[in-house]
Amino acid sequence: MSAISIRNLTKVYPIPFRRERITAVRNLSLDVEPGQVYGLLGPNGSGKSTTMKVVLGLVFPSAGSTCIFGRDSREVESREEVGFLPENPYFYKFLTGQETLHFYGKICGLRGAKLRERASELLALVGLEHARDRRLGGYSKGMLQRIGLAQALIQQPRLLVLDEPTAGVDPAGSREIRDLILDFKKRGITVLLCSHLLSQVQEICDRVGILHKGALIREGRLDELISIENQTEIILENVNPEVLAQVHSFLSQSGGRILAQRKPQTTLENFFLEVTADSKK
Amino acid sequence: MDSTPVKHTFFSPARIWAIATNTLLELFRLKVFYFLLIFALLLIGSSAFMIDFNFQEQFQLLKDVSLGAMSIFTWLLSVLATAMLLPKDIEDRTLYTILAKPVPRFEYLIGKLLGILLLLLVSTLVMSALFVAALYGRQQFVISETIRTSAGMPAAQLQEIIRGVRTSTFTFSLIPCIAIIYIKAALFAALTLFISTFASSWIFTIMVSVACYFIGHLQGIARDYWLGSATTGPLARIFLALVALIFPDLQLFNLVDDIVAGNSVPLLLFGKTAALGGLYTFIYLLAAYFVFASKEL
User: Fold this and answer.
1) Residues paired with A162 in a beta bridge
2) What is the CATH class of A4-226?
């Protein structure tokens, strides 16, 4: 059974006081298998958020259907297994971190010692134990995202839907959230992720779908989609110029061609984190 | 730790209570109770005008001012506090995180309304306590003044006057009077919640709710006038019937004025008015659910 199953989904929004309609999603079909991290990509207005909202039962399909672990998204019960983090969530600023988790736990049916234990466990998981009694009004953007992840996990869902989880978060916070998502994957939690940060999607997603103008234009395993079939990448270490010349010569004799030869580079993110970590010491 | 997932139930009073208490906490931390200070100041201020009156007039003025202010304050609080609840949750996207949990939309609405009703209950009880304290203080002042100025008066006559002062101060009818004030505010909270399910902004919600207040107060007069006229056509009659169905006749809630004026209100009439308020509250909540259930967020 798929974690998410979308069949021929079409969503049309009427424009008030006009006869025009906007088709946000057209005839979309896709499956997210249990345990996968699935990246839903696309430019602004491509239908990503609408698709997520239909999956979560926040908007209703004009045609087609969506299911979560076999249950129709329109049924409230389907949300038992889902945790959701919306883009730029604010939550209730008047609540502390702990109160926030208690509130979301209570509406999921948790009570008493079980709820308190779960909240403490999640505060530790997202690294917010020190801020448990601070009101969310005083949280930074990265802390809000992390408390958002914690509330999404409160009822131990099997599926997490994350809309731009690292939007507006600094590189260190972004890295922490990425690591958390990889940790969820290890625990067998399925993740549907919407993000514009393609490098991050590339690092953590098993499979991606690309939406454009409401239609799915590409879909598949990430490594298959982005690999260049007729090229091979070899990274060499401690090779002197003579050996390199021999490699060039051998390749040209065998009909192959070296397209590029350069020093491997770290990513700007790694470099930034390294530098800022040094300066903090 | 027990990792068994909690099974969803169709209706959960515990979920509703969690949303209601969270709503109450929100309003409490937004410091909406500060308006009670204004109420207290109003009670103290009204004492300044009582010097030249006899004791019956003093109690009457205090009741008029206090219950009038209580009625306006609870109504204002119900409209202003309710109008912002739903739009704020949508704007801040907190509504997404709540409805993405296994929470039925009707439970969310009931929870929000219950939170407001709790707020109104606390406010009404606090205002009532302040009112009773002011009335008791005034009573004690009048009694001490009476004793001071009645030197040489026979004891039986003095006791008679004091008994008169006491019976003029507190009457049982003040309780249904305060209950009617609360029920009217509850009705407006439900009406405002209903408006906010389709309104585009909280300002619009407040404006429509205030307009409903005036329509509710004026429709009885308009109906009597038009239906009394021989020239009123069938269309106008249908229109009036529709208005009467949609908006409660708030003149019926003017029982408060009768009680303050010292007129006795039959228990049956109080019961009918309370039931009407309860019925309209339920109807508006139901209407809010029908709009909200199909609302795309």
Assistant:
1) A85, A193
2) alpha beta
